[in-house]
Design goal:
- The strands form 2 sheets. This protein has a 5-stranded mixed beta sheet with strand order 1-5-8-2-3.
- The protein has helices spanning 2-8, 52-56, 63-66, 86-94, 132-143, 151-168, 198-208; strands spanning 16-21, 34-37, 44-46, 74-75, 107-112, 121-125, 128-131, 178-181.
- The chain is globular, with a radius of gyration of 19 Å.
- It is α+β, with helices and mostly antiparallel strands.
- α5 packs across α6 (151-168).
- Helices cover 31% and strands 16% of the residues.
- The protein is built from 7 helices and 8 strands.
C-alpha cells in the first residue's frame, strides 16, 4: 500500500479515481479513512489497518474453494506471505520520508474482493475462468443496462449477484465485497465513472475553506 499511496498522493483535486482489486487482501490497499462491507451495507466503519499480530491469528477456510471444484474454484491469494528482506527493513528505518496525505479534493473509491480471513475466489462461469468480484460487478452493470448509478448501488447489485452464486454454485464462498473511500466523497452521492463525481470532493473541500467552486 505504501507504493500505491506514493502514486495516488500526486493526484490533484478534482480527480475521480476508481480502483478494483479482485484478489484476497487482509488489509485495506489504500490509505482512505472509511469503508463499507456489503455484508453489512448500511454500516460505515473506519478503515483501520490490520496489524501483524491480527494477521497471524487469521485462519482461512479452504473449503471455500476445495468444495467447489465442479466450477474449478480457486483462491486468488499467494500460497504464502512474502517476507521482506533485511535490507528493505533497514531502508525503511533510514528513509522516514512519507508521502503526503491524499488531496482532500480527490474522489477515491477502492473496491476489493474480500478482507481479513476471507478468500477472494475465481471460478469457471459462463465458459470463462473469472474472478468473482469482476464477474459480479460486470453482471451488475448489465442488469442495470449500463445506466448510471451511485457506487453504493453498484456494490449492492454486485452483492446480489454474489448471493445468487453462493446459493446456487458456490455454497462455501465466504467473501464479501468492500468499498473504501475518502470523507469528502461518499459512495451514495457519487455516480460511477461520471466526470461530475470528480467535483464532489473538490467542492466540499473548497466549501470547508470558505471558497466556492466554479465549474469551468
Amino acid at each position: 500500500d505504501e507504493m500505491l499511496h506514493q502514486y495516488i498522493s500526486r493526484l490533484p483535486s478534482g480527480v475521480l479515481l476508481t480502483v478494483v482489486i479482485d484478489a484476497s487482501l487482509s488489509n485495506a490497499p489504500m490509505r482512505v479513512p472509511l469503508r463499507v462491507n456489503t455484508e453489512f451495507p448500511h454500516r460505515e466503519v473506519e478503515n483501520s489497518p490490520v496489524t501483524q499480530a491480527m494477521y497471524g491469528k487469521f485462519r482461512y477456510n479452504c473449503n471455500a474453494w476445495l468444495n467447489s471444484q465442479h466450477v474449478n474454484a480457486t483462491a486468488r491469494r499467494l500460497p504464502c506471505e512474502p517476507q521482506r528482506p533485511l535490507w528493505s527493513h533497514l531502508a525503511k528505518l533510514l528513509n522516514r520520508d512519507e508521502a503526503p496525505p491524499l488531496n482532500e479534493g480527490l474522489a477515491v473509491f477502492c473496491i476489493t474482493a474480500s478482507s481479513k480471513a476471507q478468500s477472494a475466489l475465481e471460478a469457471w462461469l459462463e465458459g470463462q475462468q473469472r474472478g468473482i468480484l469482476s464477474y459480479c460487478l460486470l453482471q451488475a452493470l448489465e442488469h442495470r443496462q449500463h445506466q448510471s448509478c451511485h457506487y453504493l448501488d453498484w456494490m449492492d447489485s454486485a452483492q446480489e449477484v454474489a448471493d445468487v452464486l453462493r446459493s446456487q454454485v458456490l455454497p462455501y464462498m465466504d467473501q464479501y465485497f468492500h468499498i473504501s473511500y475518502c470523507k469528502n466523497a461518499a459512495p451514495d452521492e457519487c455516480k460511477i465513472f461520471e466526470s461530475g463525481s470528480a467535483f464532489v470532493a473538490q467542492d466540499r473541500a473548497k466549501r470547508r475553506r470558505g471558497q466556492k467552486h466554479r465549474p469551468a
